[in-house]
C-alpha cells in the first residue's frame, strides 16, 4: 500500500485530475526505483546540469526564463549536489529567503511562477495543514516530516529533460546554419546586383533587385525554420540566376584578365613598407634628414605572393585583382563586410598607407573566424603604425607557416 500518493493544495488551490495522476505516477515510479527496476534512468542527476538542460529545453515545456530562475532558487535550497528522485526532496524556504535567492522578485510574481512549475510537472506542493512551510525534526535533529515544495518530479524527469535539451541544441544548430545560408545568399545577390548596376551591365538587374526584396522582406531575427527554409530555397535559385546573368555579361577580355596586368606600386607618404614589383624590391624615397630615424624595414611582398597567401580577397572582385589599385578598392569593400567602420579604415590608411592597410585587410579576411572584433583589431594595428612599430610582414608570415 503506497503512502500519501496525493497532497491537496492549501487554501484556494484546486486539486485537478492531471495533478492527482502526476502524483500517483511519481509515487509508483519511486517505488520501482527503490526496488531496483529503474533501468538506465535512475531518476538522479546533478542539479546544476539538470537546470542547464531544462533552460535549453524550456520552450519544450513552456517555461520562461524567470520561471527557470524561480526553480533555480528552489533547487539552491537542496543541500545535496545530486537530486535523487527515489525519495521526496522537500525544500521549505520562507517567502523572504525565496525572494532573495530569486534576485528580489516580488512575492506575487514568485507565486505565479511557482504555479507555472506545478502546472509543468516540475515540482509538487507538499502543503501543511496551515499552509506554512517547515520541517518537523526528532530529538536528534533528524527531519521526520517536511512541508514545502517537492523537487522529486524534476529529478524523475532528468532523462527526458536531457534528451529534450539535446534535441533543442540540434534544432538550434540547424536553425543557425539556415539563417547563415539565408544571410549569405542575400548578401551575395545584393552585391552582385549593385556591382552590375554600377558597371552598367546588360541584364534585368532592377527585376532581380525587386525579387530579392520580396524574398528578404519580413524576415525577423526570430523567424522560424518553416519560414526560413522556403526563403533559403528561393534565394538559392535567384542567386544562380544572378550569377549566370553577370557571367554572361562579361566580355572575353574580362574573363581572361591576367593577374600580372598593369601591376604597379602604390606609394603613400605615410607608409614605410616596401613592396615588390616583378620580383624586385621598390623602396620609397625618404628625405635624407629623416633616413636615420626611420624604423627598420621588413621583407617586401609582391602582389602575386600576396594573392597566394590571401586568396579569399580575390573572390570579392569580379574582374580579379590585377594591381595594387584593385587591391585597395577591394579591401574597401571587404572592410565593410567585416564590420569595420569608414572612420577606422580612413585612420588605418592614413597611419599605414593605402597599400599596407589593404594588405592588413586581406590578411584579416583569411583569419576572419578567429578575430572577434575586426574593427577593434584594425584600430589596434593603426595605433601601432602611428608609433612606428607595425609591419604587415608578421601577419603574412603567420599565414605562410601553415602552408609550409
Automatic annotation (TrEMBL):
Q: Which domain of life is it from?
A: Bacteria
SUPFAM superfamilies cross-referenced by the UniProt entry: Winged helix' DNA-binding domain (SSF46785)
Which InterPro entries does this chain map to? RepABC_RepC (IPR047611), RepC_C (IPR021760), RepC_N (IPR005090), WH_DNA-bd_sf (IPR036390)
Name all Plasmid replication protein C C-terminal domain ranges: 304-400
A Pfam family of this chain: RP-C_C
Describe the location of the Plasmid replication protein C N-terminal domain by residue ranges.
26-195
Question: Which NCBIfam families did the record assign?
Answer: PRK13824.1, RepABC_RepC
Q: What is this protein called?
A: Replication initiation protein
Amino acid at each position: 500500500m503506497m503512502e500519501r500518493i496525493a497532497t491537496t493544495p492549501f487554501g484556494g488551490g484546486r486539486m485537478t485530475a492531471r495533478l492527482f495522476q502526476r502524483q500517483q505516477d511519481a509515487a509508483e515510479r519511486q517505488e520501482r526505483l527503490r526496488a531496483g527496476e529503474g533501468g538506465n534512468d535512475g531518476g538522479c542527476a546533478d542539479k546544476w546540469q539538470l537546470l542547464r538542460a531544462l533552460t535549453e529545453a524550456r520552450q519544450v515545456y513552456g517555461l520562461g526564463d524567470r520561471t527557470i530562475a524561480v526553480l533555480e532558487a528552489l533547487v539552491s535550497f537542496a543541500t545535496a549536489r545530486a537530486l535523487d528522485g527515489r525519495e521526496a526532496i522537500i525544500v521549505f524556504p520562507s517567502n523572504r529567503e525565496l525572494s532573495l535567492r530569486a534576485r528580489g522578485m516580488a512575492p506575487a510574481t514568485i507565486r505565479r511562477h511557482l504555479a507555472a512549475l506545478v502546472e509543468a510537472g516540475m515540482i509538487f506542493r507538499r502543503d501543511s495543514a496551515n499552509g506554512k512551510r517547515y520541517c518537523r525534526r526528532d530529538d536528534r535533529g533528524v527531519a521526520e516530516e517536511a512541508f514545502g515544495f517537492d523537487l522529486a518530479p524534476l529529478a524523475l524527469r532528468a532523462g527526458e529533460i536531457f534528451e529534450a535539451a539535446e534535441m533543442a541544441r540540434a534544432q538550434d544548430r540547424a536553425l543557425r546554419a539556415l539563417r547563415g545560408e539565408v544571410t549569405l545568399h542575400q548578401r551575395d545577390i545584393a552585391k552582385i546586383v549593385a556591382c552590375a548596376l554600377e558597371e552598367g551591365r546588360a541584364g534585368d538587374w532592377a527585376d532581380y533587385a525587386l525579387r530579392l526584396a520580396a524574398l528578404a522582406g519580413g524576415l525577423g531575427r526570430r523567424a522560424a525554420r518553416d519560414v526560413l527554409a522556403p526563403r533559403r530555397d528561393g534565394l538559392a535559385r535567384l542567386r544562380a540566376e544572378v550569377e549566370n546573368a553577370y557571367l554572361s555579361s562579361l566580355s572575353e577580355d574580362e574573363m581572361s584578365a591576367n593577374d600580372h596586368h598593369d601591376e604597379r606600386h602604390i606609394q603613400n607618404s605615410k607608409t614605410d613598407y616596401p613592396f615588390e614589383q616583378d620580383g624586385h624590391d621598390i623602396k620609397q624615397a625618404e628625405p635624407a634628414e629623416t633616413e636615420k630615424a626611420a624604423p627598420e624595414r621588413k621583407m617586401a611582398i609582391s602582389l602575386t605572393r600576396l594573392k597566394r597567401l590571401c586568396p579569399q580577397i580575390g573572390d570579392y572582385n569580379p574582374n580579379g585583382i590585377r594591381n595594387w589599385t584593385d587591391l585597395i578598392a577591394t579591401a574597401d569593400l571587404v572592410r565593410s563586410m567585416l564590420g569595420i567602420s569608414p572612420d577606422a579604415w580612413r585612420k588605418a590608411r592614413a597611419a599605414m598607407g593605402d597599400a599596407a592597410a589593404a594588405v592588413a585587410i586581406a590578411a584579416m579576411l583569411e583569419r576572419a573566424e578567429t578575430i572577434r572584433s575586426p574593427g577593434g583589431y584594425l584600430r589596434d594595428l593603426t595605433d601601432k603604425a602611428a608609433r612606428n612599430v607595425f609591419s604587415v610582414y608578421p601577419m603574412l608570415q603567420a599565414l605562410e607557416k601553415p602552408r609550409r
